[in-house]
Structure formats: structure tokens, C-alpha cells
Design a protein that fits this description.
The protein is mainly alpha-helical and 104 residues long. The protein contains four helices and no strands.
Length: 104
Amino acid sequence: MGSVPGHDEVMKDVLERMSVEVNRMEEESMPLDVRVERGVHVSQVVAYLQAEVAEDESCKSLPWAVLLLVAFCMSCIFAESPSTNFVLRKIIDEVFMEDANFAF
């Protein structure tokens, strides 16, 4: 009976993930003083620092996003000039109403 290609690699990967999960569960069930003595794994520190750097970068990009939003809103307001459009529409409505009333 032949083996499936890639089966050994998949099984190794599954076993490695399971062993990591079992180790994590064992560490969580340890008393606090034992966990303090063992310290923190380097991978946990690296993961924490990477998350902090990502959050820092996203916070630094926020002012630029707000500035871009304000610039977009201002360009829309100046391009369309809503107050002028409103006044012109009101004047046109009044002119049509006067002409319509005059005809009858």
C-alpha cells in the first residue's frame, strides 16, 4: 500500500501545532509563581512588540486620513457651492410661480 504524497509533512505540521497548543495549556495551568520563574518566551515578546508597532503606525496615519477627508469635503463644498445652488433654485422657483400666476 503506497503512502499519499505530502502526508508525512501534513502530519508533522499537525503534530507540531498540537504540541505547541499542549505546551501553552500546560503553561496556563501552572501556578503564577512558577510561571514568573520561567519568564516570558522571546516569541511572545516579539509578537507583542510587533502588535505595538502596528498600532503605532496606524495611529500615526490617522491624522493624514482626517486631513484627506477634510480636504475632500472642502473641495466638494467649493466645487458645488451649495449655498449658490440653493439660492438659484429658489429664485427659479419664484420666477416660475410668478409667471404661472400671471398666465392664469
